[in-house]
Amino acid sequence: MDKFTIENMNLYYGKFHALKDVNIRMKKNRITAFIGPSGCGKSTLLKSLNRMNDLVEGCKITGDIRLDNEDIYGDMDVNILRKRVGMVFQKANPFPMSIYDNIAFGPRTHGIKNKCELDQIVEESLRDAAIWDELKDRLKKSALGLSGGQQQRLCIARALAVKPEVLLMDEATSALDPISTGKIEELCLKLKNDYTIVMVTHNMQQALRISDETAFFLLGEMVECNSTDAIFSNPQDKRTEEYITGRFG
Amino acid sequence: MANSDNIKNDAALVDVSQIKAINKVSFKQRMKAYKRKPLSLVLLILVGLAAAISAAALIFIIVYVLVRGVPNLTPELFSLEYNSDNVSCMPSIINTIILTLVTLVISVPFGVGAAIYLAEYAKRGNKLVKVIRTMAETLAGIPSIVYGLFGMLFFVYALNWGYSLLAGAFTLAIMVLPTIMRTTEEALLTVPDSYREGSYGLGSGKLRTIMRIILPSAMPGILAGIILAVGRIVGETAALIYTYGSATGYAAGPFNSGRSLAVHMYVLTNEGLHTDQAWGTAVVLLVLVFAINTLSAFVAKKLGNNKR
Fold first, then answer.
1. Potential cystine with B243: which of A205, A245, B168, B286 (Cβ 3.0-4.6 Å)?
2. B253 in helix, strand or coil?
3. Could you tell me if B293 and B69 are in contact, meaning their C-beta atoms sit under 8 angstroms apart?
4. Which of A174 and B302 is assigned the larger pLDDT?
5. How far is CA A200 from CA B10, B274, B275, B293, in A?
6. CA-wise closest residue to A7 among A69, A47, A63
7. Tell me: the pLDDT tens digits for A82-117?
8. Considering only CA atoms, which of B87, B118, B101 is closest in space to residue B267?
9. Are B308 and A142 within 8 A, CB to CB?
C-alpha cells in the first residue's frame, strides 16, 4: 500500500529548478532510500514531504503530493502534517533543555499534560530508540551533554514521541561514527514494522543494507526507483549503474 | 553497551601534577624565539602595555572614588528624610530604583516585541527591517541631552505632565529602546536555525516555538541588553534634569518630581557646597551599579543553566 504518492512534482528555489517532474510512490512499512550526488534534490524532496520547505524563502512547488491519498498542500493543517510525518535531521539538534523535556516537547505541543502519560511516552520513545538503558538515570540532565550518537538517537526518540506515521531521515547518520551508525540502522530495521521510513543517504552501502526501495536522483531528476536489490544488481538506467559502481559522484 | 563518553569522563582522570611535560615552553626557549623574531617581542610588550594602562585607568578611578567617598559615608547621608544639612541620598536611591523599574516596564515589552518581529516574523533581508535597524543604531548613538530636550518639550510641556516620574521614565524608555531592541535581536539571531527546524518538525506552531525554544535560548543575550539599559538609566543625568526634575523628596506618584542618584550627585557637585557628600554619593552609585550587574549576571547564569 502506498503511503506517499508524488505526481508531476516540480520545485523551484527562486529561479533554480531544483526538482523536475518527479513521480514516486513510497510504500507503507518500508524503508525507502534516496541516493544521488550532492545537490541532486533528494533532501529537497524529503523536506517537501513534511512541508519544511515552507520555511525556505522563495521556494515554489507544483504538482501533487499525497499522504494516504490526502493532499498535504491542500486543506491539511501543516502542524498536523508534521505530527504525522516526523523528521530527523542531518545534524542532531536537541533543544537546550533536559533529556526528559526534549522528548516531552512534542507530546506537550499536542496537548498531553498528564504527568503519568508523559512519563510513559518518554520511556516508550527512548526504548524504541534503543537508548533508554543509557539515559534512564539522567533524564533530568541537559541533552547537550550527550555524545553525538546519543544526541541523534535522542532526536529519533523525540520524533517518535509524537507517534508519527512516517519518519523522514535526512542523512541522519552522516555525522556519526560507525558504531552509532550501526545502532541507528538496526533501529530503522526495527522501526519499519510500525513506521514508514524515508531516508536520504550519501552512503550507498547503507541504502543497500537497510532499505527496501531505492530511488536514484541526478540533477533534480528522479532517474530510477525500484526495489533496492534490483537497483543495485540490475540497474535499468546507465546513469544509475555508473553512480552505484562509483564511476562518478 | 557501556557508553564510551561516560567512561572517558569518570575513569580517565589522573593526577598530572608530577608529570614533566615536554611540550611546556620554558622561559629560555621563549627568549630564544624572541631573539629570532624581535618584532613579536615588541608587539607583546605593546599589547601588554595597552592592557595594563586600560586596567590601571579603571582601577585608578575606582580607587580614587572610594578614597574620596568612603570617609563621607556617614549615617546622615542615609537619613530617611532629606534636608540641606544632611543632604541624604536615601530618597534618590529609592527614586532611582523606582525610575529604573518603571522605565524597564515601559521599554522591555516594546523592545523585545519589536526584536521578535524583526528576527522571527519579518522576511529576512526585508527593506523595512534594514531601515528599522539603521534607525535603531542611529538612535542608540544620539547624545542623551537630545532625548532630554525632546522629553521636556513633549512629555513635560505638550502633554503637560510636568517634571515627573512618568515624563522621566518615558524619556529614558525611548532612550534605551534601541539598545534593548538591537541586543535582543542579535540574541535571537544567534539561536541556531536547527532549533527552529526541530520544533517545527515536531508540529509546533510559530508561537510555541518562539515562547518555548527561542526565547529561553536567547535569554542570556536579552538580559545582557537589559543590563546595558539599566546601566544607562542609573547613570543618566542629562535626559532627566529637564524631565524628572530634581525635587529632593521621594517621588510618591507618577506625576511627582524627584531626582535620581546621578542627578543628585550632579546637583550637589554643581552647587559646590556639598562636594564631600557628592563623593559619598558616587560610592553609593558605584556599589549600586556593581550590585545590579552582579545580580543580573547571576540571573542570566541561572536561566542559562540548562544549556550545558
1. B168
2. coil
3. no
4. A174
5. 37, 76, 74, 49
6. A63
7. 999 999 998 999 999 999 999 999 999 999 899 999
8. B87
9. yes
Round to whole Å and give the CA distance between B264 and B232: 16
Could you tell me the pTM of the whole model? Answer: 0.81
Q: What is the CATH number of domain B73-307?
A: 1.10.3720.10
By the 10 Å C-beta count (0-12 exposed, 13-18 middle, 19+ buried), A77 is classed as: exposed
Query: CA A158 to CA A125: how far, in whole Å?
Result: 7
d(CA B51, CA B190): 29
Cell of B287: 556599589
Residues of chain B with pLDDT under 50: 1-8, 306-308
By DSSP bridging, strand A196-200 and strand A213-218 are: unpaired
Angle of CA points A184, A185, A188, to nearest 5°: 90
Q: Maximum CA pair distance of chain B?
A: 78
Reduced to 3 states, what is the DSSP secondary structure of residue A243? Answer: helix
The minimal CB distance from A144 to the residues B1, B123, B308 is found for: B308
pLDDT > 90: what percent of chain A? 60
Pairing of strands A59-67, A2-13: antiparallel
Query: Contacts of residue B205 in chain A, CB cutoff 8 Å?
Result: 79
B68–chain A Cβ distance below 8 A for any pair:
no
The interface predicted TM-score (ipTM) is: 0.89
